[in-house]
C-alpha cells in the first residue's frame, strides 16, 4: 500500500483507513494473494470518525484483535444494500457503519492492552534472565571483590537500572546478594574442610580475617569459629 509517497505493508489483523481525496495505490503479492473488504463513506462526521480510531495524516493502519467480528460487522453493513438506498435503508446503513467503527475502536483498545501486556512480560523475562546471568557471574567471582559498576557492565545496562531491577527481582541489593553467596560458600568450607578461618576468608576475597569475621557474624549471628564448633557439637550429638 502506497499513500502520499509512503509505502507500507498491510498484514493480517490490520485495517486501512484512508481519508477522502487521499491518493493511494495498493496491490498484493502474487504468491500470497488476499481478499479485501472495503467501504467508501462521506459526511460531516467522516473525519471525526476516522480520528476517533487514531487515524491521522501519517497513520492509516490500525491493528485489531478480532478480524472475524470485523468481517461479520462489514457483512451486516453490506447487507443494507438490499434496502435499495431508501431513507430507512440509509439510516440503518449509517448505524451499521458506526457499529463497525465502534468495534474497531474496541478491538483496537484490546489489541493495545495485549501488546502492552506482552511488552511487560518480555521486560520481566529480560530482567529475570539478566538477574540469573548476574548471579552466575557472582558465583564465578566469589574469590574477588566486585563493584556495582562491574556487575552493571557485565549485564550490559546502566548502574541505576541494574540496581533497581536486581533489587526488584531478589528483594536485595546486588552487593548484599553477592555477600550472601560468599557467606554461604564460607559455611560450606567450614563444614566440609579443615581450612582455617583466615584461609577461607582469603579464598572468598577477604584479605582481612577480622573484617571477614565481622561480615560472617552479621550474616549468621556468630563468628566463623563458633559456627564450626556448633557444627561439630551437632555432629557429636547426633552420633
From TrEMBL:
InterPro entries: AraC-bd, Homeodomain-like_sf, HTH-like, HTH_AraC, HTH_AraC-typ_CS, Tscrpt_reg_AraC-type_HTH. SMART domains: HTH_ARAC. GO terms for molecular function: DNA-binding transcription factor activity; sequence-specific DNA binding. The keyword Lipid metabolism does not apply. Keywords: Activator, DNA-binding, Transcription, Transcription regulation. Residues 132-230 form the HTH araC/xylS-type domain. Pfam families: AraC_binding, HTH_18. SUPFAM superfamilies: Homeodomain-like (SSF46689), Regulatory protein AraC (SSF51215). This is HTH araC/xylS-type domain-containing protein. It comes from Agaribacter marinus.
Amino acid at each position: 500500500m502506497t499513500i502520499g509517497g509512503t509505502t507500507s505493508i498491510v498484514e493480517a489483523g490490520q485495517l486501512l483507513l484512508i481519508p477522502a481525496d487521499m491518493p493511494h495505490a495498493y496491490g498484493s503479492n502474487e504468491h500470497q494473494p488476499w481478499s479485501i473488504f472495503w467501504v467508501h463513506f462521506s459526511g460531516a462526521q467522516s473525519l471525526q470518525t476516522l480520528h476517533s480510531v487514531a487515524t491521522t495524516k501519517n497513520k492509516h493502519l490500525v491493528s485489531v484483535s478480532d478480524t472475524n467480528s470485523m468481517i461479520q460487522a462489514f457483512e451486516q453493513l453490506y447487507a443494507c444494500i438490499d434496502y435499495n438506498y431508501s431513507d430507512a435503508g440509509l439510516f440503518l446503513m449509517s448505524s451499521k457503519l458506526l457499529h463497525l467503527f465502534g468495534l474497531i475502536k474496541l478491538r483496537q483498545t484490546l489489541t493495545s492492552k495485549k501488546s502492552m501486556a506482552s511488552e511487560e512480560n518480555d521486560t520481566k523475562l529480560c530482567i529475570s534472565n539478566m538477574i540469573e546471568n548476574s548471579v552466575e557471574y557472582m558465583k564465578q567471582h566469589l574469590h574477588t571483590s566486585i563493584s556495582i559498576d562491574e556487575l552493571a557492565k557485565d549485564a550490559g545496562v546502566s548502574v541505576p537500572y541494574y540496581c533497581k531491577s536486581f533489587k526488584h527481582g531478589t528483594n536485595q541489593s546486588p552487593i548484599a546478594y553477592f555477600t550472601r553467596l560468599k557467606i554461604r560458600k564460607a559455611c560450606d568450607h567450614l563444614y566440609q574442610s579443615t581450612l582455617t578461618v583466615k584461609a577461607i576468608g582469603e579464598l572468598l576475597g577477604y584479605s582481612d580475617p577480622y573484617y571477614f569475621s565481622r561480615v560472617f557474624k552479621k550474616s549468621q549471628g556468630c563468628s566463623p569459629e563458633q559456627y564450626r564448633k556448633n557444627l561439630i557439637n551437632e555432629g557429636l550429638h547426633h552420633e
